[in-house]
Structure formats: structure tokens, C-alpha cells
Write a structure and sequence with these properties.
- With 413 residues, this protein is mostly beta strands.
- It contains 2 helices and 20 strands.
- Strand 5 and strand 6 form a beta hairpin.
Length: 413
């Protein structure tokens, strides 16, 4: 090993250690900070057994794909070279404000908070408008079965099936702070894995003029077109009507990741700009910066969206610029029986315009991809959701084609 390689290795290990220390110190600090109020809060909280309501966890809507398409998240941790939770994107960032129009005892929540249910459950309880939501101990989860059929080039001509279980708890710390933890279990049926993971552990609550997170929480970046899975580090969000977010940590596919975004949401449209700088994971070590600019316009139950994504690194052919176009129809609510949502998305994304893409197609396997995805989401009963998706994508470097049909049934509790 030469001197430069040794220095890079030492820097990489120091960066990893620093991120773990930052998240751990932040968690310990907030826990100690909140400890002075915890006993009062526990005394006010709902009982931990007998009569405890779980209304706050009545299944949220699946978060909207760009253009308004409802899109449940799929974990692709079993897939090689990605650790992202796959979904077809989402028009909204996680942890948007809860629906202030909901009545105090209503289990309904707005379309933007699905990620609060599984990927980032820090909104649990708040969706009802209950003032002491942070004082309530909660249990939540999901049981999902999926089957996927692949075709096209030989490497994509394979099927997959399995069961995924999520189980999490939310506990009050006091002073508006809460502790969240979630584990997941995969059960193999066909070409899936049998892995177990402690996938979420973090604290979140008010800090100064905004809200802070520390630990390992879910992070939806650029509607899933850049990333949608676990993020280990710290995050701070503040501002209204323009919401600013800063974060530092690491994803399942990158190191030394810095995120800065600004988002504006109006009654019938939303806009977001972001900068994402990171060191590529998997031992690559190169640094890349992605710039995103996107928006969605909503009218009645139809939505249209567009997003630009540019990277500092080019792919094997020098491509650095990409885009995603989308169209959504319907008003899907997972808690409302017989509601539905349709989406169509067209992708043209070179390799470095995403960290680990959040889709159920073959895109995460490719060296950049171009093509489309279309899907339907339907709520059979309250909190029982079915999905049917189809993707037809071409690798931007090799030209190989990969088609995939994705079906799933989920129950949220």
C-alpha cells in the first residue's frame, strides 16, 4: 500500500468514526437535556397497557410520487450495490407539517406523511392534533408480501418474492423530544433475503427555531430520485413558508454526506432546490455533488411534476445532467377503503445523479437509466394496501433493457 492510499484509508475511517460519535453524542445530550421533564410527561401519558389508543398510527397515506402519484416505499437493502429503500419517488419531503384541518380525534392525515409512518415516524401522534402527542408511548409497524417478475436482458430475467416485517416503538423523553426505534425482518420466499436489521434509532424534537434529529432516521431526498432510506447523522429543519434543511452524516451508499435544501409549499404547487455533496461508498471514495431543482402542480385530483438533476461527476460517457417527468391521478388514502392512486414517471438519469435511487424497477442495478414507470395503488380496506407497478428501463451505458412488474400487499398497524 502506497502512502496516498494509506492516507485515504485513514481519512475514510476517521470520517466514519466522527459521524458515529456525532450521532451518539447528540443522542446522549438530548436525552440528558430532556430527562428533567420525563417523569412529569410519563405521568401525563396514556397508560402503557389497557386502553392505549393507537389512532395516531392509523395508516398514513403512502407518500406522493412526483406529480402526485401515491407510492409506497420498498426496501432494497437486499439488492447489491444499493441500500436504499425503493419507491417511485415522492412529491414531498418527510416530516412535512401535519394536516392542521384534522379534528382532534380524527385518524386522518394528509398525503405527505407516509414516510412518518415507517421511514421516519417522528410524526406519530401529531397527526391527530393532540397537544400532548409527544407524551404518548406508541407501537407501530407493517407486514408486507411482495412478488416481482423481471425480464429483458439475461441479468434482469429473474423473479423475487418475500415478506417484510417492520416493528417500531416511540417513547417520550420530555420537553417535546421523543425517542424512536424500529427493527425489520425479511423472510425469503424466492431470491429474497432473511436479514434482520435494527434500521432506525434516533431522537427528534424542537431545538431553537426549528426541529432537530440525531441518530439513524429515514431520509427522502429529492422525492426519492436521489435517495430514500436510512441516514445516520444529524439534521436540522426550520422556516416557514420556505423550509430550510441542513444535514450531515452517511447513507447506506455514501460517506461524508452534506445536504442543504430549501422548499416552498403553496396551496396548489410546491418547489424545492437542493445540494447534495458526498463521498461515494463501497470503497470508491470519489466526491460527487448533485444539484436538484423540482416542482409539482396540483389541480383537483391530478398532479404534474418535473425535476432537474445535475452531477459534478460524469458517467462513462460524460453524461452529467438528468431529469424526471411525472403525472399522477387519484386521491389515494391508505386509511380510506377503496381509494386509489395512479402514477406515470419518465426517467432520464445518468449514473451519478442519484446516490441510491428509490424505485421498484431495475434502475438501481444500472449505470444510469432511461425509461418509464407506471403504477396503481389501491386500499382494499382501511390500512390494507395493494400495489401494481411496471417499469421498462434501459441502461444508459450498456443499452441493456430491464423490465419489471412489482406487486405487493401491505397491512399497517
Amino acid at each position: 500500500m502506497d502512502g496516498i492510499s494509506f492516507i485515504r484509508m485513514v481519512k475514510h475511517e476517521m470520517d466514519k468514526t466522527l459521524k458515529v460519535l456525532l450521532a451518539s453524542v447528540f443522542t446522549v445530550f438530548i436525552t440528558v437535556y430532556a430527562a428533567s421533564g420525563i417523569w412529569v410527561n410519563v405521568a401525563k401519558a396514556a397508560p402503557l397497557s389497557g386502553g392505549m389508543s393507537d389512532d395516531g398510527m392509523r395508516a398514513a397515506d403512502v407518500h406522493q410520487g412526483a406529480g402526485g402519484a401515491a407510492t409506497p416505499s420498498e426496501s432494497t437493502a437486499n439488492m447489491p450495490n444499493t441500500g436504499a429503500s425503493a419507491n417511485t419517488g415522492g412529491a414531498t419531503s418527510p416530516n412535512q407539517p401535519y394536516d392542521k384541518k384534522s379534528t382532534p380525534h380524527s385518524p386522518l392525515i394528509d398525503r405527505e406523511t407516509y414516510d412518518a409512518l415507517i421511514s421516519d415516524p417522528s410524526m406519530i401522534g401529531r397527526v391527530k392534533g393532540i397537544t400532548d402527542a409527544e407524551d404518548r408511548f406508541r407501537v407501530f409497524g407493517e407486514i408486507r408480501y411482495h412478488y416481482a417478475s423481471g425480464s429483458g436482458s439475461p441479468r434482469y430475467d429473474r423473479d423475487q418474492s418475500g415478506i417484510r416485517l417492520y416493528f417500531g416503538v416511540a417513547a417520550p423523553l420530555g420537553k417535546g423530544w421523543s425517542l424512536y426505534a424500529m427493527g425489520e425482518q425479511h423472510i425469503d420466499i424466492l431470491n429474497y433475503d432473511n436479514g434482520t436489521d435494527f434500521s432506525r434509532w434516533y431522537v427528534t424534537g424542537p431545538l431553537g427555531v426549528g426541529t432537530a434529529w440525531g441518530g439513524k432516521f429515514g431520509y427522502l431526498m429529492a422525492e426519492g430520485n436521489i435517495y430514500d432510506s436510512g441516514f445516520e447523522g444529524v439534521r436540522f429543519r426550520a422556516g416557514d413558508p420556505v423550509t430550510y434543511t441542513l444535514a450531515y452524516g452517511q447513507t447506506n451508499a455514501s460517506d461524508s454526506t452534506v445536504v442543504a435544501t430549501a422548499r416552498y409549499k403553496a396551496m396548489d404547487y410546491d418547489l424545492e432546490a437542493g445540494i447534495y455533496n458526498y463521498d461515494i461508498g463501497y470503497g470508491d471514495g470519489r466526491n460527487n455533488t448533485i444539484v436538484s431543482l423540482g416542482g409539482n402542480y396540483h389541480f383537483s385530483n391530478i398532479s404534474v411534476g418535473a425535476m432537474y438533476l445535475g452531477a459534478s461527476l460524469g458517467d462513462a460517457e460524460g453524461n452529467k445532467n438528468g431529469y424526471v417527468l411525472s403525472l399522477g391521478y387519484g386521491n389515494f388514502k391508505s386509511w380510506m377503503a377503496r381509494s386509489y392512486g395512479l402514477f406515470f414517471k419518465y426517467y432520464d438519469q445518468p449514473q451519478h445523479t442519484y446516490i441510491a435511487h428509490g424505485m421498484n424497477g431495475w434502475g438501481p442495478y444500472m449505470q444510469g437509466f432511461k425509461g418509464y414507470g407506471v403504477g396503481l395503488y389501491y386500499s382494499f380496506y382501511s390500512n390494507v394496501v395493494g400495489s401494481l407497478e411496471y417499469y421498462d428501463l434501459d441502461d444508459k451505458i450498456t443499452g441493456e433493457n430491464g423490465k419489471r412488474i412489482w406487486t405487493s400487499v401491505s397491512y399497517y398497524f
